[in-house]
Specification:
- This protein is mainly alpha-helical.
- It is 53% helix and 9% strand.
- The chain has nine helices and two strands; from the N terminus they run H-H-H-H-H-E-E-H-H-H-H.
- The longest helix has 18 residues.
- The termini are close together.
């Protein structure tokens, strides 16, 4: 696992290299200077539940999405083709909804001697309960414009693991292939690359 500072450097480098549309500089300034994006975990205790985990998860999703979209079947059979900027936007920013939501806390856990002890953990407290993917779209849109497909990809990045109606989720993933690709990359990163 990289240090939070190394993760931050890599994220900023990938962001600046790929995302150049109007407002992207203000959004990056927000991420660097006005919120906890680079120190927040990605979850309370499941995937990337450590300081810097949110930025690391975002990078993992970016690399998984680039890999998925580079596959011959995806390019030739499915005809999916997106710009480097679109890929970076949806992957790096899909979980902005988690900014400023994780608070440090303690929980009781039995140690190897069977005795209870307090261990540090995170708890989730959302000051803006606007949903998950839709909240990320809302937050990004305050800085820069998203295309419809980018917005839909971010909105539906949880795929069938979200709380939405499965019919609606299926239609969104079928209608907006970038949403399916992002959901696939998000699951790959969460379930196979990331540990607590």
């Amino acid at each position: 696992m990289n240090s939070p500072e190394k993760i931050k450097e890599e994220f900023i480098s990938v962001y600046k290299e790929n995302i150049v549309r109007e407002g992207s500089d203000k959004l990056l300034d927000y991420l660097i200077n006005k919120c906890d994006f680079f120190t927040a975990p990605a979850s309370t205790r499941f995937h990337s539940a450590y300081a810097g985990g949110l930025a690391q998860h975002s990078l993992n999703v970016y690399y998984c999405l680039k890999d998925y979209l580079s596959r011959e079947r995806v390019k030739e059979t499915y005809k999916l083709s997106y710009t480097e900027e679109q890929i970076a936007i949806v992957a790096l920013l899909h979980d902005m909804c988690k900014i400023d939501c994780y608070k440090t806390d303690f929980r009781n856990v039995k140690n190897d001697k069977g005795q209870w002890e307090k261990v540090p953990t995170y708890k989730f407290e959302d000051p803006l309960p606007y949903g998950h993917g839709e909240k990320s779209v809302y937050m990004i849109s305050g800085f820069m414009r998203l295309s419809r497909e980018e917005a839909m990809a971010i909105r539906w990045h949880m795929g069938f693991s979200g709380t939405e109606d499965n019919n609606l989720t299926g239609r969104a993933l079928e209608t907006y292939p970038l949403a399916f690709a992002l959901a696939t990359a998000d699951m790959e990163a969460s379930y196979f690359l990331e540990t607590v």
